[in-house]
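User: What would this chain look like folded?
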Amino acid sequence: MIFLILVSIITLMVYLLNQIRKPENYPPGPPFLPIIGHLHIMKKLCNKFQFQYLAFNHLHEKFNTKVLGLKFGNELTVIVSSYPLAKQVLKEDVFEGRPDNFFIRLRSMGKRIGITGTDGEEWSIQRQFVVKHLKTLGLGKEIMSNLVKYEVANLLKILPNNNTAIKTLLAPCVINIFWSLTTGSRFDVNDCRIEKLIAILGARSKVFDLAGGIMNALPWLRFIAPKKIGYEMICKLNKELYTLFMETIEEHYKTYDEDNDEDLINMYIKEIKKGNAHFTDEKLVIVLLDLFIAGSQTTSTTLDFALMMMILRPELQEKLQKQLDDAFDKNVPIDYSQKWRVPFAEAVILEVMRFFLITPIIGPRRTLENTVIDSYSIPKNTTVLINLQSLHHDKVYWKDPEVFRPDRFINEAGELINHDYIIPFGMGRRRCPGEVLARNCLYTFFAEIVRNFKITLHPNSQIPSLIPQPGIVLSPQPYLAQFTLRS
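Assistant: Here's the prediction, encoded as structure tokens.
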């Protein structure tokens, strides 16, 4: 008995020592604690600073490093904080993996499938299929521009005298464009499914942001306190999303025609019917989820911020309206291919993305082999995150990053400047596949709204705040806008 007790004590001590031992030449950071790692530190700092990226900034400054070495549960996690290091992580093959952890699998409804949460052969096959067929369906072509114009025209009809928050009007329009490309149809105005989809995606984003850290580090807590840590809610939302997407997929099976190449779902089903093992109904659901999460929320949120700034900076609104009036015939819809006529509209959008950090932390990446970042050793299977705040608010590069100044993206000749330090769509092989569609939506919606309406603060609204609401995707604090038709 004494021997067994001694063996147990020694085993426990060895386990605890391994838990607190840092890998050789690991990046600077706080001491490791057994089991929880740095979970307690991040929770405390996030409560203090409200935003995760500010908590990371605090630790970067405290340890005087651009490469921060942390650990959450048993997962080694490195945060990089500079443009050269971000570029290295985004472009080098060794960082192309995705973490295989509880959080990533839960995001994909318990499986390691789809595009966003996978790597290797599975990722390559699914991504290539989606990119190829979205191009076939019109991504980057006239058909895509026509879809955008149609939704813009519908939005312009309902904006005047509307007392609803603009984000509730923007989100359905953007969702419908993605829905049209993937399903071959659009939601009707009175279709309750679009409201349900938007509500689920929004709720899911918030609960994942709140629960992600603790649930990933200590997944066993779901058996003890599933409601408190958000696991119960995530499972409920996942089930609702799965049901919603499967209803649409089943409708496509009923009307399936192998000669019909008009939507992504139909073409995916064609691969399933061929017996291709890489294509299943379950994988199709996650691919659809990946597309809608990646594109719809960030696009409508960026537009929300851009219109908010037109209220707060009326001189910028007037400047843009004059340029739009001079460049475009008021009776002809703006076409994205003509955006070069008013580069200032794109400059405002770029400044919104830079200033508001809509997705402040990007990644996560997983190292496929032992590697090196800024002379520090990064073990295989380490999770790597990129703090975009370090790029988009770099004081040396931008000079006055705390100032909202779209002119920083315009040169003396009045042409658009594409700065390397702003990478809202990422770079490398994992660059956002829907970037072309997102940019088209952003420019066309924004330019058309601004040239058609004088945008002011609604009398019943409080002044919008420059401090966004926390979340995986940062969004504006609630405000109401008033849209008055221009003559």
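The longest strand covers residues 67-72. If you want, I can go into more detail on any region.
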